[in-house]
Structure formats: structure tokens, C-alpha cells
Amino acid sequence: MAMSEKRNTVGRLADDTGVKPVTIRYYEKIGLLPKATRSESGYRLYSEEDHSRLLFIRRSRGLGFSLDDIRELLSLADRQQESCAGVDAKVEQQLVQVRSRLKDLHAMEHELERLSACCDGGVIMDCRIIETLSGSA
């Protein structure tokens, strides 16, 4: 290891990236992150490359990509000279899924608005929302 290369413990990496230590260790266990080197006292030590890779994973998760999708994206990212068509296809697939979920969420929103409009106040035994959800209406 070069003297100038900074190494972080799992706690420091967690603080820097906003990813919990248990999640970092899990990503390492399932191979999304490479196995960390260990200090003489046994602490996991992570490089700047590990830091960048973890941010990639966190941002990908934030966009709703599954761990399998992220594994594929990381594999594609590691092949710098290849066409980005595989990445484009993966993003398009995710966009289709997000749009489908948005459609479902809009339908839920409208149903909840409809249910909310049914409420006249009063007591639970006369509640139209409970009645509707119970299938009695």
C-alpha cells in the first residue's frame, strides 16, 4: 500500500458515505465490495476506491436498483473500454419499473382520497372508511 493512500475504518467509511457499518459489512460479504484489508489489530480498512464504490452502490440503491442490478452495473463499470449500451439498457429497465410504480402510487392516492372523502367524522362503529376496508360497504 502506498504511504499516501488513505485507509478508513468501517466507522469512518460509514460516516463519510451515510451507509451503516452493518450494511457495509453485508456488501462486503455478498461481494459488492471487495474484502477489506485488516489492520494489525484486526480492524477493517477501506481505500478511497472502496469509498467510491460504496457511494456508487448507495446512489444506485437510492434510484431503486436491486442488489443484482447493482452487481451488474458494477461489473459493467469495471470494463471501462466497453460500450455503455448495457448501462443504458439497465437504466431504461429501471425507468420502466419506476413509471409502473408511479402509476400504482397514483391509483393508491386516488383511492385514499376517495376513502378520505367518505369520512363524516363521528365514531368508529359508523365509520365508512373502516366499513369499506372491511368489505362491508
UniProtKB/TrEMBL annotation:
Q: Which UniProt keywords apply?
A: DNA-binding, Transcription, Transcription regulation
**Domain HTH merR-type spans what residues?**
9-76
Provide a Gene Ontology MF annotation, just one.
Answer: DNA-binding transcription factor activity
Pfam families on file: MerR, MerR-DNA-bind
What SUPFAM superfamilies does this protein's entry cite? Putative DNA-binding domain (SSF46955)
**Which residues are the signal sequence here?**
none
* Gene3D superfamilies named in the record: 1.10.1660.10
Name of the protein this chain belongs to: MerR family DNA-binding transcriptional regulator
